[in-house]
Amino acid sequence: MKLTKDQLQKLILSGIGFVVLVYVYSTFFLGPLNKSRDSMLATIKDLQTKIGASKNEMHNATTLEGQATAATNRFAALKALSPEGAPIAWFPPRIKTFFAKQNIEKSSTRLDNSSAFKQSELSAWIKNTWQIDLPQADFETLGKAVAQLESTEPLLSITRLNIKTAAEDPQFQQAALSASTIMVKR
Amino acid sequence: MALHLNLLHEEISEHRQRQRDPLKIGMIALGIFGALMFGYYMWNAYQTLEIKGRLTAAQHDWEKVEPEVVAAQKRADELNGIIGTTKVLDGMIDTRFYWAPFLETLARCVAPNAQLTSLDGLVLDDNKGISITVEGVAAGREPRAAAEELRQLLLEQIGQDHKDVKVEFKTLEDLDTIANLGGANMAMARYVLNVAFNPFPAAKPDASAAPRPPKEKPE
Questions:
Q1: pTM of the entire structure?
Q2: B28 at A interface, C-beta within 8 A
Q3: Is B103 exposed, middle or buried (0-12, 13-18, 19+ CB in 10 A)?
């Protein structure tokens, strides 16, 4: 069949109309609809993953709560070793009372320095170094007192110990202790 | 045979040409195709609406769960912090050096003919060890031998509990002073001992989160 010029023009016009229709349909109708649907499906998947993970997380938190009971109690006990208030206000009297109970009447405590810890876990804690002077103590009593101090103060560590005979009374010794303590920042 | 004349052949030809008009056929095809596409679009729109409903339900579920999850995460972080802190603190407590047992050992090693006049002990930085300087005097027929006896006893006794033990004389000198021991006059020597040892473990053990009772120390 041979097409006339007029028929050929009409055929081309129909073809252009078809292409325009397909373009408009896919760009302005089906495309946005599919895009919106895909986006919603992705959001649903994301939410379902989150909900699934959240169940695990809540279960883990419950398990951790049970497992951490001992650590929580231990932490509370260690924290309770630092009373409220500035350490300089309560630590020297506590040490004075302690040594008095150990029959060492004379004692003085002063704060040497304070520094933060490098470990991130101890960001809420502070390291204080104290100078404890015991001008009159006999060796045996001092030894027992040091043992008791090390037992009852788990967050105290003696870093330097100096004992020498008292010049005026040779039966007694003079002792000086450098002790570092770990305390809660207040 | 009858002669059949078609006097309307031009009109029929025109009619046939109109029926075969490509524009008309194209428009009809376009209309059918458009209807199909519209149907397909409606079907997709229906599915999208259904998905939207599912999304709303999922969002509703998440809104119900989210506060609990946030609280659980916060609590878990808090607990992990507590566990971590307790572990580090326990590690520090466990690696402390206890002076009382050392003082007891030292007291056991000092014989009646030796006397300590001064002791200066230091925990080296980063728990590298302990360094102690002991000063004293010893009396006897051989006061240097009495001082050496103390040195050897210290070496032996400290070596039982700690590693890398060194007990060395920094100074050992005779004194002009005479001491009276049990009614007998004895010569005296003055000594300075450097004592060094390492009570700390080479590699830090992994401290557990569980609490540990404080170490019992002999008195």
A1: 0.72
A2: no
A3: buried
